[in-house]
Amino acid sequence: MKTLIRLITVACWSLAMSAQAVGPDDANGLWMTAESDAVIRFAPCADLPAALCGTIVWDKDAGTPADTCGVRIAQLGRYDKDAWRDGWVYDPRDGKKYKGVVRAQADELRIRAFVGVEILGQTERLKRVASLPAAPACKS
């Protein structure tokens, strides 16, 4: 009986883990910042199709001097161990590039920016959105 219970437990645990498995395409799509002030589109890079790029496609400040529409904020070269790695992330607030890692799971995307080693970094959490807010619109 104990063996049967163990087998059922292992089977349930395996199913739960496979249901949460993520892949490289999970980061693709539109993602709203935690402050709801920008939407970033993650997709394969036009100039490097095997890499993942993040570009600001909606900004609450569109059309003003603070407009960041069209700014590439991430470029990551490879997917490994549940994350996009080997690239950079750019913070338009301070104008600096950092090493970066991007992880997506369900409706949350985590962008980790760091100098040196990942553990010493800072994480931004974004939420998936189905479409861009109506206004203000970024110029194409």
Task: Produce a short descriptive summary.
The chain has 140 residues and is mainly beta.
Strand order of the largest sheet: 1-2-3-4-5-6-7-8
Largest sheet: 8 strands, antiparallel, barrel
Unreliable sequence segments? 3-19
- What portion of residues is helical? 10-25%
Name the descriptors.
140 residues, globular, 13% helix, mainly beta, Lipocalin, eight-stranded antiparallel barrel, single chain, signal
3D architecture notes:
- Residues 1-21 form the signal peptide.
- Keywords: Signal.
- Pfam families: DUF2147 (PF09917).
- This protein is mainly beta and 140 residues long.
- The protein has one domain: Beta Barrel (Lipocalin), CATH 2.40.128.
- 13% of the residues lie in helices and 44% in strands.
- It has one helix and eight strands; from the N terminus they run αββββββββ.
- It has one helix at 2-19, and strands spanning 29-32, 38-44, 52-59, 72-80, 83-91, 96-105, 108-114, 122-129.
- An eight-stranded antiparallel barrel has the order 1-2-3-4-5-6-7-8.
- Residues 3-19 have low confidence and may be disordered.
Helix-strand blueprint:
Blueprint: H1 2-19, E1 29-32, E2 38-44, E3 52-59, E4 72-80, E5 83-91, E6 96-105, E7 108-114, E8 122-129
Pfam families: DUF2147
Keywords: Signal
Domain DUF2147: 29-128
